[in-house]
Amino acid sequence: MADTMTEPIPEYVLFDMDNTLYDFYFAKTQSCEAVVNFAGSGDGMELFRYFMSGTHGFEDHNNIHDFLEDKGIFEPPRLYEDACAVYEEVKLASLKLYPGVKETLKMLADAGVPMAIITDAESSQAEKRLATTGVRDYFDGVMTPDRSGVRKPKPEIFHAAAGMLKCNVHEAWIVGDSPKREIEPGNLLGMTTVYAKYGDWIGIPYPKIRPDYTLQSFGGDLQEIMHLKK
After folding, report:
1. Does 133 share its domain with 158?
2. Arithmetic mean of pLDDT, 136-155
């Protein structure tokens, strides 16, 4: 699990949110399935591929617009508006923390470790998800693209997130599920990098990107490498 040795208990920690604290892939697929059931056409993975296409953002409702239009069932404005409401409601309701997340965050908080979120979700979405999962109070701040002006892996968003904790970026640990968007930039910035492999549902191998630590699960693994276990 551990590839290198670092000082016990990190001074500062930045956490990615989606697929690091909870299974966002599951929430997305559930919400897409709910939309197609509501609309009465297509299947959930078909709609999910619209979100993955890159035509719009991964959370952009225009993906639902295009799906309904391509299916020939777009009836503005009511069906589209209602479908978007179903999507948001089911997505939030489907968010479930990974085992050990809340307990580990509490251990870090009790140890006096400042923590912040760094995410590519917009601030309104991020705040809703953290509130829904009941972990918002553990974090001193939430850094998002609309607050920093850039998305991961741009270094500016990492510096901005570290600024929320009043530390230099190289003093912080970064925990995330994406080798390209969290681990690689973290390595370049001199951070201690922790790869949440359990949440990397895309699973593209990047053999040249080497994290300091790799997690097979959140709770026990992270508590061990951060020396939180008594």
Report:
1. yes
2. 97
